[in-house]
Amino acid sequence: MIPGGGQPNMQQLLQQAQKMQQDLAQAQEELAQTEVDGQAGGGLVTATVTGAGELRGLKIDPKAVDPEDTETLADLVVAAVQAANENAQTLQQQKLGPLAQGLGGGGIPGLPF
Question: Against a cut of 0.85, is the pTM above it?
Fold first, then answer.
């Protein structure tokens, strides 16, 4: 309900919605360009992902490579990618969370907040 009983200004509401949409698109683009790392094994394996969750790189220290124990290396890779994705989710919350609150706090479909 509008204070004073007046009707909402539809033009103003439309402009606000368009501004939020532009801000959201800009934040998503920034996330797609921003890279975060996750590490495992004390830094033996490092995964790099974008803020949008796209895997961009994987660094493996030669000390982590044991031909007799590839399972441990695989576990380290998985852990590093998971850590990087958790960092990407944190970045998403920082960038997109305030925008989601501007949309009524219902969150953004497909994002974990």
Answer: no
- In residues, how long is the chain? 113
Strand stretches in 1-113, DSSP E: 35-40, 45-50, 55-60
Structure tokens at 68: 């007799």
pLDDT in tens, 1-10: 455 556 778 8
What whole-number distance in Å separates Cα of residue 78 and Cα of residue 40? 9
Residue bearing tokens 């490092």: 46
Listing from the earlier edge strand, what are the strands of the sheet with 35-40?
A: 35-40, 45-50, 55-60
CA–CA distances in Å: residue 106 to residues 22, 69, 92, 99, 103: 18, 46, 15, 10, 7
Candidates 46, 34, 24; CA nearest to 88 is: 34
Rounded to whole angstroms, the Cα distance separating 81 from 20 reads 32
Pinpoint the alpha helices (H) of 1-69.
10-33
